[in-house]
Amino acid sequence: MLSLTELLAAIRPLAEEAGRATLAFYGDKAGVREKADGSPVTLADEAAEAVILPALRALTPEIPVVSEEEVAQGIGPASVGARFWLVDPLDGTKEFLSGNGEFTVNIALIADGRPVLGVVVAPALGETYAGTEGEAYLVDANGERKILCRRPPQEGETVVGSRSHGDASAMEAFLKDRKVAAFRAAGSSLKLCLIARGEADLYPRLGTTMEWDIAAGHAVLAAAGGGVTTVDGGPFVYGKLDFRNPHFVAHGAAGV
C-alpha cells in the first residue's frame, strides 16, 4: 500500500490535469444545467470528474471513491468504510460562471473520519495547495513553498466568508464578541486555503455544505497547523450517511 506521501505525489498531478480540463469550458455558459437539488452543474464538472475517477480507481482500487456528480446521479459505493476518497471535481460553480477565477478542483483522502491528505487546485489562478502528515505547501508562479497558519495579529482576526453564499446576520451574531480586524470574501474551498497560507484566521460557515466541498481544504488546513470544528467546538467528522455537514468553523493556529 502506498504511503500518504506517495499518494500525494500521485494525486497532485491528477488534480492539476483535471483543473486544466475545466479551463476548456471556462467562460462558456452554454453547457450549464440544473441538478435535482437546484444547484448548477457544468460540462467542466463532468470533464474534471472524467479525469479523476478512473485514475483514482486504478491507483487505489481498494479505496472507495465518493464524488459529488456521481452522488447527484445516484451513483456511489454502498458503504465507504474507514478509508475513502472524497472528490469535488469543481467547487465554486457560481465563481466559475462569473469568471472571477475562484473555483477549485478538490481531492481528499479520509481515514477514520478525518481528512489525512488533500489537494486543492485553482486552475484559473495558477495555484495548487496540497497537504498531508503535518506539511502543507502552495505551488504558484513563484514556485513551491511551505505554508503555515498564523496566530491572529494584535489588531484582530481576518475573517473569511463566502462570496456567493451565507447569512450576514448569522455571521454578525457569531462574531459579536470577537476582535475582528477585517473581512475577506472568497469563493470555493479557497477560504480554507487562505487560512492555511496565513492570510486569514477564521471561516465560520453557518449554512449548508457537503463533505466534498471542504474535505481537501480541511486536509491542507490541518497540515498547515489549523483545523475545523463544529460551531460548538466539537469534532468535525467525515463519512456521514448523507455527507451533509453541520455548521462549522475553520480556524488557524490559535483555534476557535
TrEMBL record:
Gene that this sequence comes from: cysQ
Classification via Pfam families: Inositol_P (PF00459)
Organism name: Acidisoma cellulosilyticum
Stated name of the protein: 3'(2'),5'-bisphosphate nucleotidase CysQ
EC number(s) stated in the UniProt entry for this protein: 3.1.3.7
Catalyzed chemical reaction(s): adenosine 3',5'-bisphosphate + H2O = AMP + phosphate
Stored InterPro entries: CysQ (IPR006240), CysQ/Inositol_MonoPase (IPR050725), Inositol_monoP_metal-BS (IPR020583), Inositol_monophosphatase-like (IPR000760), Inositol_monophosphatase_CS (IPR020550)
Entry GO MF terms: 3'(2'),5'-bisphosphate nucleotidase activity; magnesium ion binding
Function: Converts adenosine-3',5'-bisphosphate (PAP) to AMP.
Required co-factors: Mg(2+)
